[in-house]
Amino acid sequence: KKLANAFKSFGLRESDRVGTLAWNGYRHLEIYYATSSSGLVCHTINPRLHPDQVSYIVNHAKDQVLCIDLNILPLVEKASKNFEAVKAIIIMTDNKNMVQTNIKDDIEIICYEDFINDHSDQFDWPLLDEKTASSLCYTSGTTGNPKGVLYSHRSTVLHAYGMNLKDVVPYGVKDVVLPVVPMFHVNAWGTPYAAPMCGTKIVFPGAKLDGENLTNLMNDEKVTISLGVPTIWLLLLNYLRDSGKKIDTVKRLIIGGSSCPRTLFEGFEDEFGAEVIHAWGMTEMSPLGTVNMPSLGEEPKDRTEYYDQKLPQGRTIFGHQMKLVDDDGNDLPEDGITQGRLLSRGFWVLKEYFEDSSEKDRFLDDGWFDTGDVAKIDQNGFMTITDRTKDIIKSGGEWISSIDLENICVGHPEVANAAVISVPHEKWEERPIVIVQPMPGKSPVKEEILEMYNGRVSKWMIPDDVIFTDNIPLGATGKILKNKLRDQFGGHKIS
Ligand code: AMP
Q1: Eight-class DSSP state of 10
Q2: Which of 72, 111, 269, 279 fits 256 for a cystine, CB–CB 3.0-4.6 Å?
Q3: What does the alpha-carbon distance between residue 55 and residue 83 come to, in Å, rounded to a whole number?
Q4: Does 385 sit in the ligand 1 pocket, CB within 6 Å?
Q5: Do you find a cis peptide bond into 146, omega within 30 degrees of 0?
Q6: Tens digit of pLDDT for each residue in 294-306?
Q7: Pair 142, 392: CB distance under 8 Å
Q8: Does any ligand 1 atom lie closer than 6 A to the CB of residue 388?
Q9: Residue 472: how many CB atoms within 10 A of its CB?
Q10: What is the pLDDT of residue 495?
Q11: Is the CB of 231 under 6 A from ligand 1?
């Protein structure tokens, strides 16, 4: 309430955007509620992006104020040179830890605790129309710039109800939840709304997501349920095995964002007594679409079958629908064999990207949204993701645009064409490699090509390897045939 008052007296008005660049912490939660509940829009931004992407997103959203964690300041200092509408940057710390910055003079720099200190702890929350925007999150579109997904109070509350259905997440008053999934990534999968709805205690991990920190936090705070991407859980599982420590209070781990490998199901359940639940979703759908909870009549005959049942991404949640179509938009059967484009619609699925119509062909008749995933669905409604039509790579839960990487590579004077594909990776799930077709008679050098990426994309986005080929296959319209390249080079081992 103090923060809502502070925003109001700063001059922010209904629907103004407040950006955040922050890890999972209590001040971030304060910002979530002070903004949305007073009619402002909480715009969470990924601090792992390149400064140019951050400034694009901040400018596109017309953020007026940014709230940032102290250790994200170096990134914001770089990005701020191009900020257009930002009037103030609030550093999420107290007076004792406040620092000097290199940010241009027309942006006011404020200490968070000083900002709220003198304000009243009473606030008359406005009665908002349910369709009022509450939060905003950008995701990598399949082409071009990042795309904004604007959530409403209605979609957010319905999604939180959906999460709390018995066989979905759900939270309870005796649960303690540790959201490892970042609060800048689809509102930590809705936990900051769904957990308080049930009076559930939330534990915030901050920036340190290594195995030791997570284990200590889980044990000290008696965490019962936690959520995150496979990469994080793989680190935790390895740490637990090496250290001999336990996480006895943890009953459920919700794993999504990428396909959950079988080793995680088996390792956590057999060795540490924590049930792994596989979920699928997208930024565009708040994010939950499916959760895998085997039902009555599906009793497994042994442990192998038990884990087989847990592998699919699961069944749809009430309030969300999905179906498969072919490339011409015809419905496909749900027979567990036929694969098709996966469409989604529902109370918490977006209808358009925020002030960006460049991908309007993904919004189909009757409210269906083309997810860009390829899947099969069986007779009992269990969906399995089998492929992706969208040309992006997901590494450790974060997107890398193949197109951005290709555009940089073709800037090399000896490169005729370049294609970026992903190869499987034990720790990061997927990593990008670049396939290069040299100009006739030229022999570009691998190191020179990789050097082109320095400073242009974040370090973790730089391809892990370069492969040279005489011929990048093209289709009839001149588009690179990525499927052919995936068949040919998808098994490439990074040197
Ligand atoms: P994001 O919007 O960053 O949350 O990414 C959404 C995309 O991540 C989906 O469209 C899928 O391609 C992928 N994804 C999310 N969850 C899973 C999962 N459980 N298995 C496979 N892919 C997933």
Answers
A1: H
A2: 279
A3: 6
A4: yes
A5: no
A6: 887 878 999 999 9
A7: yes
A8: yes
A9: 17
A10: 67
A11: no
Whole-number Å distance, alpha carbon 246 to ligand 1 midpoint, is 29
Dist. CA 85 → ligand 1 center (Å): 32
Instruction: Indicate whether residue 257 lines ligand 1 (CB < 6 A).
Output: yes
Do 433 and 460 meet the contact criterion of CB atoms below 8 Å apart? Answer: no
- Give catalytic residue positions: 139, 284, 394, 399
Query: What pLDDT, in 10s, does the model give residues 451-491?
Result: 999 999 999 999 999 999 999 998 877 788 888 999 999 88
Give, to the nearest 10 degrees, the angle between helix 26-37 and helix 2-10: 60
**What's the pLDDT tens digit per position in 194-234?**
999 999 999 999 999 999 999 999 999 999 999 999 999 99
Residue 390 Cα: closest atom of ligand 1: 12
Q: What's the rounded Cα separation, in Å, for the pair 495 and 493?
A: 6
Residue to mutate (ligand 1; options 394, 395, 400, 429; most atoms within 8 A of CB): 394
Query: Could you give the CA distance from residue 321 to residue 368 in angstroms, rounded to a whole number?
Result: 9
CB of 258 closer than 6 A to ligand 1?
yes
Euclidean distance between CA atoms 361 and 344, whole angstroms: 14
